[in-house]
Input
Amino acid sequence: MLRPDEGGRMSSEQPGDATAWPDQIYDLLKEHGIRQVALVPDAGHARLIRRCLADNAMRVVPLTTEEEGIAMLFGAWLGGEKGVLLMQSSGVGNCINMLSVAIAHRTPCPMIVTMRGEFGEFNPFQVPMGQATPAVLEAMGTLVRRADRPEDVAPTVDATLRLAFNTYRPTATLIGQRVIGAKTFGK
Amino acid sequence: MAAEIGTGPSGKLHRRAVVRALLRDRGRLLVIGGLGAPAWDITDAGDAPENLPLWGGMGGAAMMGLGLALAQPSRPVLVVTGDGEMLMGVGALATIAVQRPANLSVVVLDNEHYGETGMQETHTRHGVDLAGMARAAGIPDSRLVTRAEEVQALREALHAGAGPLFAQVKVDEQSLPLVLPPREGAILQARFREAVLGPKAHLQ
Output
């Protein structure tokens, strides 16, 4: 049985490797000095969110809508702190206009997006935004990279963080649904 | 001092007199101005690197204030924005209330209209109580300000660091001459960061 936050692994992969990526992302956030973690929860991010909540050096800020996170990361950077936005692909659509703030000010704005609506999706309503996610982000000037295997997640997130803070722009890692596992609603 | 804060033709407070009063002798105050008239208002009070006037990002001003307030907890942070801008991102009141940043104040200059687009009425024109919404979200110090004396008290409170603080200031709806800040976003961001962080801002 697949569970939302750990299922969907390929049988050929080592279980230890396949489940390590949330902890690897947490380690990268520490390495890059991330202090503000803005998020709308997603099952795919559940383990990473727990790690961040347990860290007193990180401020975890749950949002009412994802665009709040784009705005917050701009404020954080104005004050000299680095932030990251965690969300599900459906939340990317809520960010579109606010991304103009990061583009116009040249603000580092890294996003880590767990994908829905693509690999074994059950819910029809996740498909339109999931399919549009990379196009929408790129249309708003975001550099987008995908990770479709567990071992690709850490290097891709590392590159996303580096591109954001070294070149001053919105960047995103899309973590494929195949990595996370499709939510099956018991079917 | 309160007598200096004038009113407009309607008898309501004059928005630029309010902002000048709030920013007078501003000390270490950092200011974000929401797009449209509030950005012109903070510029009218005196363009400064510690001002971030917004040209876009409608609905995001209060959340920008939160990110800044969390990053600079020892400095008072003031968001000055409009009723239309606040209504667009009103969920931010809940997000801010949960975080409880003591150094953050959000002041809405409420003229009950979308001033930049032809003076169409906003929901506050029809009784929507932003201060009440902020209080219900969990910002205990949420004020409705209609008189000059209350503006002076608000000025003292936003420097006191006992926030979060929210104020809905009813202002005259008259459109005023534009007082435009720089509009190159990279310059606005860089000068603000340098003012806060020093030259090392550019090496972060």
